[in-house]
Amino acid sequence: MSFRTRTLRVAAAVAASAAVVGLSACGGSTEASGGGADGEVRDVTLMLNWYPYGEHAPFYYGVDEGIFEEHGINLTIKAGQGSTKTVQAVGQGQVDFGWADTPPVLANVDKGVKVKSIGVFLQTTPSAVQVFADSGIESPADLEGKTIAVSSGDAPTTTFPVFLEAAGVEADAVNQQNLDAAGKMAAMMSGQVDGLIGFAHDQGPTIAAKSGKDVEYLRYSDAGLNFFSNGLVANAADIESDPELMEDMLAAVSESFEAAIEDPEAAAASMEGKDPQLPAQDVVLEQWKQTMELLHTDATEGMAPGLNDPADWENTIKILSDAGIIEEAKPAETYFDGSFAPEGK
């Protein structure tokens, strides 16, 4: 059955968990209400967490396949410059929806930015130490005495000591060199550092393609440290004003992710030529394939993309509180809205 015509239904298990996922409303750019059911199509803007890369393939594929249009949405995708800026743009009403990393979402909410998560899609953290396969680094214990490039203040770096503790490695046994995203990759490829910390599904395939060398990962999740990553964010006030758009947007995104999972090659191809900073097509495809492995936890396996489990939210909040990214572990409803769930099989 084509994803352009598929109507997703809520299974009993999904319906029972409906309260755990939130939806959001639009900002000021929408012109009509009612979604796709009455045939009206409204303009909606989405700001990404960064410049487009393979993780974002479902959005472009969903547009090309008419999925967003079927849900009454004419989607404009905007490049981002980091999750914090995306969250703030949503809070200021500059865009209708944001695609942002959960740690900056929570941190900005605590600082008074009026946004909420409406559902996390990357439910397994992509945070990892990335090293060349010939580096001799095969386990966290091998990091002792090595120099790893980090970016001060980002979630993978801030939670790095927690990862080392979980892996049984003293934090001061690993040297850290603070660099920006581009600098980290350049330093690793030139041999100035032994590896870097970042999102494995983004930087890893890029480094492998540019260097011609295999990259391996020491994933935080493999050490038992997992927390939510990227998902949809909306202005908190807007969440209350247009529930129909919220249903339409989350349903369209969830369906687009399912479509992209069904045909990864077509999803990656839909991004070609869409942004001048886009990686090569083979890198985009590899990035999306790696993203597909991050979309669920044990609690949500088999459910629609974007459906969250309450225990996963509680775990994320605790980890980020313990790491100092947020000052205290507030109730989950402080950070996300659970009024609507994406429909699922």
Describe this structure in words.
The chain has 14 helices and ten strands. The chain has 345 residues and is α/β, with parallel strands linked by helices. It folds into two domains: 12-124 and 227-334, D-Maltodextrin-Binding Protein, domain 2 (3-Layer(aba) Sandwich), CATH 3.40.190; 127-223, Periplasmic binding protein-like II (D-Maltodextrin-Binding Protein, domain 2). The strands form two sheets. The protein has a five-stranded mixed β-sheet with strand order 2-1-3-10-4, sandwiched between helices. The chain has a five-stranded mixed β-sheet with strand order 7-6-8-5-9. Helix 9 (200-211) runs antiparallel to helix 13. The protein starts with 11 loop residues before the first helix and ends in a 23-residue tail after the last helix.
Give the total of beta strands.
10
Unreliable residue stretches: 1-35
Q: What is the annotated CATH architecture of the largest domain?
A: 3-Layer(aba) Sandwich
- Overall helicity: 25-40%
Beta content: 15-25%
CATH class membership of the largest domain: Alpha Beta
Tell me the CATH topology of the largest domain: D-Maltodextrin-Binding Protein, domain 2
SSE string: HEHHEHEHEEEHHEHEHEEHHHHH
Spatially, the strands of the biggest sheet line up as 2-1-3-10-4
Question: What gap, in angstroms, lies between the N and C termini?
Answer: 13 Å
Q: Would you tell me the structural class of the helices and strands?
A: alpha/beta
**Mind telling me the CATH superfamily name of the largest domain?**
Periplasmic binding protein-like II
Q: What's the gyration radius in Å? A: 19 Å
Number of domains: 2
User: Helix count?
Assistant: 14
User: What is the approximate shape?
Assistant: globular
What does the main sheet amount to?
Answer: 5 strands, mixed
Mean pLDDT: 89
